């Protein structure tokens, strides 16, 4: 410590002082390499659009060589080109297309991050087991996998099953409380097979909720009651009549939009793109967006609004 004090005292000007401070792992607040505060939110994450048609072909190709004995999950992570990132879709969420072939079993594991599945195409016989609860995976269904829950996926149908995964893994990476464990026997036993369960939000019920919502300029919105299962992101549906549009000003929340039905145009920040069923859109924080439907459309949206509100950081423009 005395040597450090002597080096500091020996400095005759700021140019001599700065390298000594740097060696001590001290940064002068007036001499930072980059600003630490700015007038409004900014992000390097980009608005992006991923095509389900393209992703499905990619999964089919990968399925020729990657089986469940080589990979825990046959999935394609939809990443945002920020630096060397090849994982995060937006700051707090990651999205993936996943596929399971007939007769395959994605082995059981648990982890800190919360997860949800939005089923795009699946025949009878496809299902998940979450903490022993067997729940169907049918086209249009939403499945929830809370943090620390054992979960595995099975396809006992005749065709490939495809779905979208959304997880808060990037948030867990930022906060660092990551835990993960594989099931010691690979297979998770079924302890219950209920017709209704909080882990399972069937397509028909979601449509009923949407139909009951009051329309506003051709747009209906419903937020699913999932806070007891997943505390870090909201899940909701938006129905947009053909010719109508949803306009959303900037908010501090990051969001993922997955198309369950329809076609249209999205304008997200500086990106204008044509979307279709199964496609995924990324809306980074503080990015305005507008969704226009060319035909009747249904969109699933996942957003980290609960985290922003819990921390007192949620704001709208």
From TrEMBL:
Is this entry keyworded Ribosomal protein?
no
A Pfam family reported for this protein in Swiss-Prot or TrEMBL: Cupin_2
So which domain of life are we looking at?
A: Bacteria
User: What InterPro entries does the annotation carry?
Assistant: Cupin_2, GDO-like, RmlC-like_jellyroll, RmlC_Cupin_sf
Descriptive protein name: Gentisate 1,2-dioxygenase
Q: List keywords of the entry alphabetically.
A: Dioxygenase, Oxidoreductase
Please tell me the species this chain comes from.
Answer: Caldimonas thermodepolymerans
Cupin type-2 domain ranges (all copies): 97-166
- An annotated Gene Ontology molecular function: dioxygenase activity
């Amino acid at each position: 410590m005395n040597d450090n004090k002597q080096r500091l005292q020996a400095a005759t000007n700021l140019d001599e002082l700065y390298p000594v401070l740097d060696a001590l792992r001290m940064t002068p607040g007036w001499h930072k390499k980059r600003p630490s505060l700015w007038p409004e939110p900014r992000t390097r994450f980009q608005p992006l659009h991923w095509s389900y048609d393209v992703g499905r072909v990619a999964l089919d190709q990968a399925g020729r060589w990657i089986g469940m004995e080589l990979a825990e999950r046959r999935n394609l992570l939809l990443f945002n080109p920020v630096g060397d990132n090849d994982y995060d879709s937006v700051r707090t969420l990651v999205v993936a297309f996943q596929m399971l072939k007939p007769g395959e079993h994605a082995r059981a594991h648990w982890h800190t991050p919360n997860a949800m599945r939005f089923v795009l195409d699946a025949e009878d016989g496809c299902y998940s087991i979450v903490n022993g609860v067997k729940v169907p995976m049918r086209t249009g269904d939403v499945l929830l996998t809370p943090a620390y829950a054992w979960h595995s996926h099975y396809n006992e149908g005749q065709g490939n099953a495809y779905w979208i995964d959304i997880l808060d893994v990037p948030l867990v990476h930022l906060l660092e409380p990551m835990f993960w464990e594989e099931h010691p026997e690979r297979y998770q036993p079924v302890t219950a097979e209920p017709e209704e369960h909080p882990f399972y939000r069937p397509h028909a019920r979601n449509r009923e909720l949407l139909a009951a919502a009051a329309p506003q300029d051709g747009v209906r919105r419903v937020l699913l009651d999932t806070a007891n299962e997943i505390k870090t992101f909201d899940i909701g549906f938006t129905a947009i009549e053909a010719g109508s549009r949803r306009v959303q000003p900037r908010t501090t929340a990051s969001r993922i939009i997955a198309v369950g039905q329809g076609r249209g145009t999205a304008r997200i920040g500086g990106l204008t793109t044509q979307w279709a069923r199964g496609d995924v859109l990324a809306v980074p924080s503080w990015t305005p967006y507008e969704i226009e439907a060319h035909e009747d459309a249904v969109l699933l949206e996942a957003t980290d609004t609960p985290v922003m509100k819990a921390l007192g950081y949620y704001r709208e423009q």
